[in-house]
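seq:
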Amino acid sequence: MVTIMNKEYKKNIGSQVCSQGVWDSTIPGIEFDENGVSNYAKMQRNLEAAFQRGEKGKKEWVKIVEKIKSTRQNTQYDCIIGVSGGTDSSYLLHLAKEFGLNPLAVHLDNGWGSDISMQNIKKVTSKLGIDLETYVINYEEVKDLFLCYMKASLPWIDNPTDLAIKASLYKIASKENIKYIFRGNDFRSEGKQPVEWTYSDGKQLNYLHSKFGTTKLNTFPNLTLTNLVYYEFIKKIKSIRPFYYLEYKKNEAQEFLKKEYNWEYYGGHHYENIFTKFAVSYWLPEKFGIDKRKITLSAQVMSGEITKEEALKIISSKPYNDEKIDEMIEFLIRKLDISRNEFDEIWQSENKNFTDYPSYYPMIEKYHKAAGKILSKLFVNKPMFLFEKEMRSESKETKSE
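struct:
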């Protein structure tokens, strides 16, 4: 039996809570105006204004679909959709077919997918007649990289998965000569996580692997800045987020998927992957005092999916099950092939921030205004981190006045 660290749950509720959501004073870079409205709430409104739904959003989406069909270079597939078995990607497959597109579904297998998520992928792709390509990473490489991030004592230890998903989609799109990648991101139900909580990039991954890694990376598809420029600028592969334009409520989508495809829910946001579930529900809140639910629930409050009272009730409880957390950690230790003492040593090591290790971020900080103009033209949708940069820059300017 693994002894649970920090057995008494730290709610980490800040001294002030945003009047329009449950963002609170524990969130990096947060500011409140005289009415108690946070800058994160204002950023959310800016995102809503930039990507409108309703009739305007529907028209924009129809234009995108028509362009994809008219410029199609692959007679078999219009677009690629990365699938995890979760709500967003599963519903996105249905949506693509509904609008007359023929997507190629791509799943990244890092060895940690849950049985439920795997079955969900099969159910939806089979019924819709969508081809599925699975990108398999050698598990020794996956294990090595996860341990690199854990030994580095960084908050978001699942960054290797995030980078590999993006890189594999670009790689397969390039191979298949497909020019569009659909992503299931939805800021209205997910919000924008602070950069301090989740940042990493291909440069930092390479550094952490050189410092802590032991296994050569032969199959892991990293995403460096050079790769990104090549795929987006040279190969002209564009990433599109349909939920930015179309009416979409996660709860309603789940009920539809259950009824139409016998799809099953997996218990929480990103819980379709077991390592991600550990990172979100235990590593972040217990080791770092970070509860990502504050961001996602705040977004859902502002979009009208839930009430503020419901959100406050959710974050007042632990993000993990007391009765099952021992079992999860035991599973993690076995699957990572480490001893109990090694896990304890990692857990008790000094917490670090992504700024403690080399990355592209100092360059982004220095040139973000110029880079923002370039990236806004390079990408179909303005990158989310630019909205956060603008929001936090405005807060600094206001404070200095």
